[in-house]
Amino acid sequence: MILPTESLARQSRHLAMAAPQFQSVELYSNGVDPSGKPSPSSSSSRTSSRFSPSASSFLYNARVAIALAPSALFLLSLGGIPVVATLSLGLIVAYFLDSFNLKHAAFFLVWFSLVASQIALLFSGGLAAFPSWPLFLFAFGLCSLAIFLIGVWASIQFRWMILENASVVTALERLLFACTPIVASIVWTWAAVASVGMNHAAYYLMCFSCLFYWLFSIPRRSSFRSRLEGHFHGGEIPDDALILGQLEGCIHTLVLLFLPVLFRVGSHHSVTFSSATFICDLLLLFFVPFLFQLYASTNGALWWITKNVNELHRIRIVNGAIGLVVVVICLEVRVVFHSFGRYLHVPPPLNYILVTVAMLGSAAGAGSFAVGMIGDAFSSAAFSVLAVLVGIAGAIVVGFPFL
């Protein structure tokens, strides 16, 4: 069919008018104005993407800050004005260098500032309080290691470092997680001893070790490896994707269990095994972290031993029962009958039996609930009966009147 001449001319004029409109829409979709200027939406989107968190950034700044920020403040207070002035001046200059996009210069200046602050700490007299050279060298080495970890933490904050040296930042992340719980627990204990004295220093170390074990030793995925669950078979994270390996898990376990005990023996060597109270202290310093680790195994803390769920459950039940009995007996000797014996209104030996029933029953119920053994009707009924028995025993031993 042949179209009339007027309709052909009208259609050609319509196509000629429509063509620039399609070109304009296409240019705007690419972020370019028809006049050649970038569109406002594209510039704002580029700005927001430039300052938005990157997928390759370090994910665990909060937990590292919990450990290292108070440690840094303690070292600054230990060094005084020379350390504060040296570090502040270096970081200010590094900030300006980074603002002028001199990234490598800023990186090296951060490390130079940390080294200079360590030298200033050495000559400031903050470590002069140690009477012997071995203690002085140990304190200086501990401060150096803490400052080194702060430098490692600062290094993995540089975006160019992450993009250009992926294997290096992965190793630095592993080094940070491997050393921070040990160093931070010792520095925190040092600060606590400087504040409140040496009498219960081993218990401070035990508490800090448990805290940092929970923050750093629970298996976590690396910030700089693939985060897509689809890359893992069945959604299970392989060992290579974790920050720490089996060696670090074993070392952290040994430090958690034995460092408070060794510190107690070393700091009170003159009265070692001189009384039942001291022996109970040693048992508590070992078995309380031991029970804590068994609870942490519900979150994967013992993955380096075995990944069999049934084996881990048996380990928790058997070792947890032994640990609970030891801890309850030691608490009775060390705390209950030593400090609160005057408040027990039942004569011996019945008071020992009732206190043991109350404390051991409470510990058994709490432990069963923590490891997830109370889930069906029978276990709930047994837990209720145990709670009633514990309440009755506790009421009798403290002299609660019964009508």
UniProtKB/TrEMBL annotation:
Keywords: Membrane, Transmembrane, Transmembrane helix. The keyword Magnesium does not apply. Residues 34-50 have a biased composition (Low complexity). It comes from Nymphaea colorata (pocket water lily). The chain crosses the membrane at residues 64-97, 109-129, 135-154, 175-195, 201-220, 241-263, 283-305, 317-340, 352-374, 381-402. Signal peptide: none annotated. Residues 30-50 are annotated as: Disordered. The keyword rRNA processing does not apply. It comes from the Eukaryota. This is Uncharacterized protein.
